[in-house]
Design goal:
By secondary structure, the chain is of the alpha+beta class. The protein has four domains: 6-71; 74-115; 117-170, no CATH class; 173-240, Ribosomal Protein L30, Chain: A. 37% of the residues lie in helices and 20% in strands. The strands form six sheets. Strands 12-11-13 form a three-stranded antiparallel beta sheet, covered by helices on one side.
Amino acid sequence: MAQPTRAEVIEAELQRIIPIVITGIVVLLVGLFLLYLSTIAAWMPFIIGVIVTLAGVGIAGYGGWQYMQVNNLPAYRALCPYCEKPTLFVAPPTEDYTCEHCHRVVAIEGGQVVPPLVLVCRHCGTPQKVSPRAKMFICDNCNGQNDLKPAARPGVATAPVGAAEESLEYTTYDLVLVDAGHDTEEVLDILCTILAAPRDHCRGILKDLPMVILVDLPRRKADSYRRMLREAGATAEVHPTGQYRPPARHDM
């Protein structure tokens, strides 16, 4: 069973205490009614009303005392390594717990938080904080799924399949339009859309190919634009940012 948070402990205690307080109030009201009844009915002994009233006060008072104890529960702040917000416990956590804020599982070993792995998404190159218990993760930037390699020891992930284990570099990509093909009007429509530029400007681009038309794109977006251009008959390429070298031009 997972270690309960301070809020869960308080909730469980209140579920136990509230019925006690309600019972005490009901018994107190019955006792007061019996006291009143003893003043108008000779067959009702006064002492019974007193006993029942005192019992109600005692039960309700016990419930109130229990409630005061709940408010004095210790509070231990466990800081989430993902969102850096605290989750409160009544004692230091000794096993994995779910953050109350980002709902990610925080790994605990030997009473200490296990730092998350920083892995690079193989789709868009964005660094991600990943639980060492994870077998896969979904990129927060592109929503791409990354399966993890078998760990060196059970329960601990190492790196995404297809990604360099040591690379933490944020990789972006440039989109290069090499040739417009035969249907230049359709290619112009696509350029106007992805560049948010007027048609005359895009027409000028077609006269000076090859050209880098977009830079610093996530891999998935760059591939999507390249696919659009290729479907229109153009020739487009994707290169890591800054690594494209245009071919030398030979003037006639």
